[in-house]
Design goal:
With about 260 residues, this protein is α+β, with helices and mostly antiparallel strands. It has 9 helices and 8 strands. The protein has 2 domains: about 80 residues, OB fold (Dihydrolipoamide Acetyltransferase, E2P) (Beta Barrel); about 170 residues, Recombination protein O, C-terminal domain (de novo design (two linked rop proteins), Up-down Bundle), CATH 1.20.1440. The protein is elongated and about 70 Å long. Bound molecules: zinc ion (ZN).
Length: about 260
Amino acid sequence: MAQPTYALRALVLRRTKLGESDLILTLLAEDGSQQRAVAKGARKPKSSFAARTEPFCVVDCLLARGRSLDILKEARLVAAHDHLRTGLEASAASAPVAELLGRVSQRDLANPRLFQSACRALDAMEGADDNHALALSAAELLKILAFSGLRPSLEVCVGCGDAIELTEGASVPFSAIDGGVVCDACRSGLEAVPVDAATLCWAQYFLTSTFNAVAAGPADISASFSVLHLAQDLVRAHVGSPLKSLEFLFTSGLF
Ligand SMILES: [Zn+2]
């Protein structure tokens, strides 16, 4: 009897080798849940799957239910995002997005904003210059954290709820483990490190702006890196080990 099939639009996050010629795809489905599927023969040179199952491809899939993993039967490319694989800087900037999506998404746990936001971010990064790609990456990492219930508190003390003014040139205590800024009165009881107020303003800007606005706005490399470090601290405190692709970005000497 033929296996039942179903259609799925998905973003390819990662692929791993299976046997001689197959791949296991880690996918972010349109509903934001994570799925894994086998693309049989995808590593053969003439496979029609090869170019359609690269990381960052958005694909309309036809999948057959398998015993453990579902099997990719057909794949139609919706968006290739070629530049994110071929451009060195663009690739380094976009890899943390795929890695974090792979870490926070879960099987059978719908979170549609993850998929919508990732597609918009990758579309914007595909057309952006390298400096804006970095800013868009920082923006998307913060948005992914926010959609996963980990939105940092940037203007209100996480200890007492008092408003904190972000004065230009000042630094503000920030506690990754408590999820945000800390006032002077609460500081002694919480594990906090000083962060430039400017970095917190950039983070706020990234969280509240659309990707089109970020792509058209200012792109300050050092500000983007500061926000990426902030995102890495939040990942380390709440998601688990730091993102490897971000560690690479920090030490690569790119940008
Ligand atoms: Zn406080």
